[in-house]
């Protein structure tokens, strides 16, 4: 009988997209705003996996707190946190009372807070599909600073980057400096250059692979190979701390 109950609720919910959005956001908000609802444990009818990447961003980049993107995200978070009810069991009724603008913008913020493009390897990544769709200009959000880049790469890399972006003559001047001095000098020369490292220039997305089981051995082999390729790609973007390369 519980299956019949579930099916009936699904039909009715599908007919009311406004309520469906509110129910989904009721599930997302306590995860995205975990500083407001840290002690709340509620069973949810909607079965989705929601994870905020806020902590991962900070742990993966030493200079994240000073970045333009982080400051904008935190300003939005503070704005929404002031508006949200303090009790998770009041969320659904509060959401149903909001106008379209509030719902759509709060929903966009919650979805954005779950985006995970952190990866240990520079390779095609699904986050690039979103970035390309939005035409994100990464030079607006990232600059080559000492703390954010040059201290994390060898001095030879600093010299090469400066030679590429400024001039071979300036790069030659850096060769005689110690690593810290070279990093500081590179920041002064390049901070407004618009230069981006390869990982931010790489806008490639993974190939879309479809696979399934077939009765013949060749089909099974192909399916297994495709599955292994997917597993390999996923393992390269595990939950490790990301270095700058």
Textual characterization of the structure:
The protein is mostly helical. Among the domains are: 2-116, no CATH class; 143-195, no CATH class. The chain is built from twelve helices and no strands. The N and C termini lie far apart (56 Å). Mean pLDDT is 83; it is low at 239-245.
Topology (SSEs and partners):
Elements: H1 2-14, H2 17-32, H3 54-60, H4 68-83, H5 91-96, H6 100-113, H7 127-134, H8 155-165, H9 168-175, H10 179-190, H11 198-201, H12 217-235
Helices and strands, in order, run as: HHHHHHHHHHHH
Q: Which band does the percent of strand residues land in?
A: under 5%
Q: Alpha-carbon distance between the termini?
A: 56 Å
Say how many strands there are: 0
Quaternary structure classification: single chain
- Biggest beta sheet attributes: none
**Helical content, roughly?**
40-55%
Radius of gyration: 23 Å
Q: Look at the structure and give the mean pLDDT.
A: 83
SS field, number of helical segments: 12
Unreliable parts: 239-245
Shape: elongated
Structural class call reads: mainly alpha
Describe, in short, the structure shown.
The chain is built from twelve helices and no strands.
Brief descriptors of the model:
single chain; 245 residues; mainly alpha; disordered C terminus
């Amino acid at each position: 009988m519980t299956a019949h109950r579930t099916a009936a609720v699904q039909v009715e919910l599908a007919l009311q997209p406004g309520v469906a959005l509110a129910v989904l956001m009721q599930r997302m908000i306590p995860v995205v705003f975990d500083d407001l609802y840290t002690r709340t444990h509620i069973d949810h009818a909607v079965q989705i996996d929601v994870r905020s990447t806020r902590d991962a961003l900070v742990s993966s980049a030493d200079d994240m707190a000073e970045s333009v993107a982080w400051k904008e995200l935190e300003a939005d978070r503070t704005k929404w946190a002031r508006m949200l009810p303090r009790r998770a069991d009041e969320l659904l009724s509060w959401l149903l009372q909001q106008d379209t603008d509030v719902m759509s913008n709060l929903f966009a913020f919650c979805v954005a807070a779950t985006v995970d493009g952190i990866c240990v390897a520079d390779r095609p990544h699904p986050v690039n599909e979103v970035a390309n769709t939005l035409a994100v200009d990464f030079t607006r959000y990232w600059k080559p600073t000492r703390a954010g880049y040059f201290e994390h790469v060898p001095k030879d890399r600093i010299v090469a980057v400066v030679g590429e972006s400024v001039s071979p003559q300036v790069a030659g001047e850096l060769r005689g400096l110690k690593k810290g001095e070279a990093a500081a000098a590179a920041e002064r020369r390049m901070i407004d250059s618009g230069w981006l490292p390869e990982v931010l220039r790489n806008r490639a997305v993974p190939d879309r692979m479809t696979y399934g089981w077939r009765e013949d051995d060749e089909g099974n082999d192909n399916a297994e190979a495709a599955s292994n390729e997917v597993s390999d790609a996923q393992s390269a973007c595990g939950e490790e701390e990301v270095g700058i390369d």
